[in-house]
Amino acid sequence: MTTYKAEYEKWLNSPSLSEDEWKELDAIRGDEKEIESRFFAPLEFGTAGLRGTMKLGLHHMNVHVIRHATQAFANVVAREGEEAKRKGVVIARDCRLNGDAYAREAACIMAANGIHVRIFDDLRPTPELSFAVRYYQTTAGINITASHNPKEYNGYKVYWSDGAQLPPHHAAAIAAEMERIDIFTGFETMDFEEGKKAGLIEIIGEETDEAYLNKVLGEAIDHDVVARNADKLEIVYTPFHGAGHRLVPEALKRLGIKHLTPEPQQMVIDGNFPTVVSPNPENPEGFYLAVDLAKKVGSNLIIGTDPDSDRVGVMVRDTNGEFVTITGNQMGVLLLDYVIGARNRTGTMPANPAALKTIVTTEMAREICRRNGIYMEDTFTGFKFMAEKIAQFEAEGSHNYIFAYEESYGYMMGDYVRDKDAVTASMMIAEMAAYYCDRGMTLLDALKELYAKYGNFAEKTLNLVMPGLDGLNKMKHVMGVLRENPPESVAGISVSRVRDYQSGQVSVPKLGAVEQTHIKGSNVLYFELSDGSSFIIRPSGTEPKIKVYLLVKDESQEKCHEKIARYAEYAETLKEL
Question: Catalytic annotation on 147?
Fold first, then answer.
């Protein structure tokens, strides 16, 4: 087994390094902790691909890791046969630093392996990459993005022919290839311009945008309600310096929104994200410029999309004139209820309608579906699992999905994408805002109406950050302790059942295993509490942290938030296990 020191020396002595790269590695000579953190292991290639900070080393994102992963991916595509190579791949990127260089490197390696490449002429939203894979019927897709992570990160997302992120067996095949081939000498490449001349690399752009936008606009349900309220609906939009900057405003404009004010500083494309600490629409502090602008122009609604425009966050003005966040769970139930109501009003509800959510997403969605006669099913976290379920519905002819979402600000509609889509979601949020504007209501008013109708639910997601190599070991330790010795109570409330989604076992304290979960194979522990609350724990697949999800229900929002506070305090003690 190669040690991290040997790997470091291999890199340091490789003729593949540029002078600047050699200097970067030479500068850490003698810093054992830094060398170990960079070379202790490769970045793990999973169904979401790769993600990490941009540094030189085996465990970080850099051009050598990009080449290595792409050659491995090319081998997997080539094994599918000549037709798969002809259908080729689509490559996209967002605004991240080095994104253009990484995307072109990937294109050159795919082309050198005889695989046809379509590469976007500039940054594009992640959902458009998913769309392009389906639209052009390619074998696969690559997206250079780290989604909502801080500026130090970049990533390599991989897609298969259905437009969803890779199924596990293909991810495993790529990981196996990466183990087999040498990172510096095991790849084939060619000049980008030569690839274009040879017809192996094709630039795509505006024509794909138009095809995608036509599909997005096709999801609009009630154009009349937008037209009636277009003069009084003011919306502020921020793309957080990223890929939503063109298509989100264009989709809203084509929907019929007349008064859309983009935040000018954050409309500037910049992978350094100069106006925010983290370009994550889950974090309200990033909206400060948009809030100032909204107050200036008299808007009650702010929409923000993350750098690759697959997640969308919303802030709404409250009765005190201040802007408050609509959480991902809350926006999900608002959109779900709106889509059901609008389709029923317009006579466009399909037969056997269904909705999808993840196991860590609010149970309020299930209550909405139950009351409205909509089938609902849970999946694991990640839209690839929702895509699998939708494909199953289609194959069986059993259900027609109308909406899918997860609590982390991701929403999906339509048959043209198989990933979360902030362009379509932004348009639907605008349409929904117009509907409630027609009734003299904001989205906050609408949320209160839903609580009155369906019951009071509340949710909170906590991030127990555990950075570095020590953090990875700590995460494994915490999950191991909780799995082997599950708590009998959480914050004084007894645990009634434990679902271990890794094994699929459902157990009851003092009785043992009683049944199986409907899905299994994911490192998630789900504690059902005697007061009807849920306390759910899973390690993040892309960041060094354990995520804790609190789902509660009670007779009032006040009592819900009291429960959340108690369970959140308990969650913090898990760091001490």
Answer: yes
